Each structure stands twice: as structure tokens, then as C-alpha cells.
Amino acid sequence: MTGSETSPTFRLAYVPGVTPAKWVRIWNERLPDVPLTLVQVPAADAPATLRDGAADAGILRLPVDRAFFSAIPLYTETTVVVVPKDHLLTAAEEVTVADLAEEVVFHPLDDVLGWEQPPGEPAFERPATTEDAVELVAAGVGVLVVPQSLARLYHRRDLTYRPVADAPQSGVALTWPEEATTDLVEDFIGIVRGRTVNSTRGRTRPQDGERSKDGQGQEKNARRKPATARGGRTVTGQKSGARNPKGTKSAKGGAKGAKGGGRQGGSRRRS
């Protein structure tokens, strides 16, 4: 290696609530000489991170601009409402959007759900972040509707959550610039799809595709059947592909929220 050469690296962006631990582990096992660098970015900034070349690929929330990006949907999250543990809504195992009609529902500026019209009564002011909104829920002045992974990420011992059956959902996808589908991107695609090391669907491995002395190209293991796509588990217990994580199912979703303004109120508590 000359002084002008640098070792290859793979930079993977990911948004809050997504924890790509299993995929990173498999990468390190298969490509120990190619470091994988994780780049955590806010959901709203993730597309720009990929456009600017600050990451090679990312695990982002849908939708994304399909005119510029390629995307492989991984899973769709269950949407939940975060409430104090003594709130009236905790009496049910599952609630609906209509059940939130009399609640002050926080709609943070970094909301990732595609509401046409946010439910409930709007707060007097929109919290800047989901984390700020969780603190307000803990103060007993309203409730918050988010993907389940964000409810877990910002978990507090005095709060709980319930699924909202008919709320919009947030889809998660492996995303990368279509014109920048590099060999390393192909390697990571194979990992999230559950391909084996010797799968012929992915990029040819260094030991594969070697030409014989007579010039005939013969790939080792070319007759092997490709592995069934299975996806990967995140450190929060999420899986991609055919087997979905608890609290997720295969569907697309997610979009920017709309602005809102209104009153500041209190949560309904059980007597």
C-alpha cells in the first residue's frame, strides 16, 4: 500500500430508534479488514447525509426520494401512545385514535408519523424534539404518539405505552444513493437480506470467481442455492425481512408531520 492509498471503510447512517447491532456484528465477521463506522443522524437530516456523501448507506425512515435513492424496506413499526402509568388509557390493551380525542397530544417538530391531521387537542406549543415531548408527558400535561422504538429509546420508569390500532405507522428501510451502489453497499445488502457468505446473489467474494488456467471463469459454490432472505435483529429486538420484530410488521409508512398549535392541558388519570 502506498502513502496515497487508504484502507476501505463503510459508513452506515442510522436514525434514532434504529439499532443495527446484529448487522454490524455480521459485517465484522465477514469483512474484518473493512471497518464499519456508524453515523447517528436525526431522521430529518438522514437523506442529506447520504446525498452529501457523509455516509455510504443508511437505515432510514420511509418515505425517501425514490428518484435519487434505492431502498429496501426492512420492517414497519407499531405505533404507540406514551402515557403516565396511572393514565386512564392504560386500562385497555390497545387504543384507537378516537380514544385520544379528549387528550392533549404532543406533536414534536421531529415527528416521523404521516398524520394528515394529528389526533386529540394540540398543545399550546410544539416540543422541539420527541425526547422533550416525553418529558412533558412525564409531567402529566399530555400524551405522545410515536413508533414503538422511540417509546423504548426514551423510556422512563414512570411512563408506559399502548398500541394505537389505527394510527399511521413508520416504515424503516436500508437506503443508499442509487448511483453509488458500490461493492461494499452490495455486501451490506446481502447481510440485511440474510444471504450466506457464499450466496451467488451478492457480490463475488475474493476467493470466488477465480479463473482456471484455461481461461474459463468458474465460480466456487456457483451451484449452491442462495439463502432465503431473513433480515437481521437490532439490539432492541427488532428483525428485518420475513420475520419481523415484536411490535412491527411488513408494510411501508412514515412521513413528516404537520404543524399544530393549541392548548396545554393535563392527562386523564385513573382514580
Describe the structure.
The strands form 2 sheets. The protein has a 6-stranded mixed sheet with strand order 2-1-3-10-4-11. The protein has a 5-stranded mixed sheet with strand order 7-6-8-5-9. It has helices at 21-30, 46-51, 130-138, 148-153, 183-192; strands spanning 10-14, 36-40, 57-61, 69-77, 79-84, 104-106, 121-122, 143-147, 159-163, 171-177, 248-249. The N and C termini lie far apart (72 Å). The longest helix is centred in the first third of the chain and has 10 residues, at 21-30. The radius of gyration is 22 Å and the shape is elongated. The chain folds into 2 domains: 10-76 and 171-203 and 229-249, 3-Layer(aba) Sandwich (D-Maltodextrin-Binding Protein, domain 2), CATH 3.40.190.10; 78-163, Periplasmic binding protein-like II (D-Maltodextrin-Binding Protein, domain 2), CATH 3.40.190.10. The chain contains 5 helices and 11 strands. Residues 204-243 and 250-261 have low confidence and may be disordered. The protein is an alpha/beta fold.
Keywords:
271 residues, alpha/beta, D-Maltodextrin-Binding Protein, domain 2, 6-stranded mixed sheet, 5-stranded mixed sheet, 5 helices, 11 strands, 15% helix, elongated
Q: Distance between termini?
A: 72 Å
Lateral strand order in the biggest sheet: 2-1-3-10-4-11
Largest sheet: 6 strands, mixed
Q: How do the SSEs run, as a string of H and E?
A: EHEHEEEEEHEHEEHE
